[in-house]
Sequence to fold (592 residues):
Amino acid sequence: MTMSGIASQSPRHRRKKRSGWRGLLYIAPAMALVTVFFVLPVLFTVWMSLHKWPLLGTPAWIGFGNYVRMVSDVRFMAALGFTAHYTIIVTIAIFAVAFPLAIFVEKQRPLVSAYRTIIFLPVVVGLASASLLWVWLANVDSGLFAPLMQRLGLTNGRINLLAGFDTAFLTIIVMVVWKIAGFTMIILLTGLQAIPAELTEAARIDGARRWQRFRYLTLPLMRRTMALALILSVTGSILAFDQFYIMTSGGPQNRMISVVYYIFNQSFVSFNLGYGAALSIALLAILVTISIFQLWLLKVGDERP
Amino acid sequence: MRTRREIRARKALRDRIAYHGIGIGTAFFFLAPFVIGLLASFRPNSESGLPPLPPWPMSGISFDAYRILDGFGSGVWQHTLNSLVVSFGTVALTVAVSVLAGYGFSRYRFPFKNALFVLIIATLMIPFQSILTPLFIILARLGLNNSLFGLMLVYVTLQLPFSVFMMRNAFDAVPKEIEEAARIDGARDLKLLVRVLLPLVMPGVATVSIFAFLNAWNEFFAALVLLSSNDNYTLPVLMTAVRAGRLGAINWGAVQAGVAVMVVPCLIVFLLLQRYYMRGLMAGAVK
Fold:
């Protein structure tokens, strides 16, 4: 960066001036969309959350009233609790299925790409479609599971899976694992394949057993990938809505209302738009915190050899 | 020697049986719901309330379920058309906007370039579910409430972080010499972009298109909130009416038929263009 650096800088500098505004022209449509349909709504959400905002009529400024109400809102706290519960259980379930699957499809063997594709198929259909399919399969009279279990003699009579909280919850977990496990599997697979074969080979020659190789070689080298898969699963689960709306309508006993579902009810069923906005800000704060935590987690992974 | 080889061969065979045994079992779990649902959708109305044991039609293939589905809302053709319009509109607009932006970010220097790029990517951190209320109001102010075009614009915006990122990388991979040569030949600006560079970034365009199509076709929450009149419902929103049933009775045949109409296009698009889909997934995962 002595003479040559200075010399090469001047034509580039001229070019920068010449094409400065043209570049902005190319990104203008994208910026316009992001501004109107993202930046503006985010700012507007903050503004709305400080008002009592009915669907019709004029909004009234109430300062932090909505936030005060939120803190003492038992149903919102219940929704938060349920969402946290769901997120933890479903993430563990997805990993418990996806990790073995990733190891299963890692090596190039006959038919392995066919297995990968089939396991991945549910990922590309919509969560709404998957929920509809499974709400039928779980139906007590016309579905598959209850009559099948009865016919196999596992249960006396037909059990209505969606009537009780535990069985309905379990059904939704199985559905989501079916829908999402393929995605997590592929993410984990990229991590597994990034581990140099020589390393595993060297460990094998040194006498490390299969479990030892997994515990002290594979797992530490998978840190980054697992952090990514974990975060995608956690953020996705916190935003869960479709499955509860379609499969159980928030029941039984309204015990399956997730945070997004509660915001939906407040904003678009009860039309408390201001309060809904305050709840949205809370949700947004939770997710941004998780995203920052994610960046930190990925960075920590970087520092490791 | 011989026995050792035999032992090894037997172990290999056992491994292979175990491998395919697990493989077939797993494939069955992931495939069966689709197959059972699809088969069941061809049962006559008299069988549609029965458990799918067996799932295939007992007395000949029938399209009763699809006919009943057609009786909901404004007919299944209208709603499929709505979904197609929104999905293909989203694909076209996403490609146009992200190709332009990707090219701009890859090839030009301008003030606040990095900050603006980060702003587009940062929208990923904010869940759109949390800004749906103001979106609803903004669209109403723009006269785009309850309109497929408004919904399309929202979907395009949601696709932008991924798409702009993909397209910028695609343009970055194109050697600058090609552009210089085309410039000398007299191609400029948009002409250069469309005639010379676009064919070179087609794999990126394919990836962006698949994700835009699948996400727009499958999206439920925004469509549920932003569309308010029956004729405009996309398929997933129509299906809530089918799911709710009439007079307390749900016609499960219609549910199966609706699931088939929503699921089959996704599976076909994915199976045909798997390579481009996986490329996008990897790019997202590596990032």
Chain A is about 75% helix and 0% strand. Chain A touches chain B through 89 residues (CB under 8 Å).
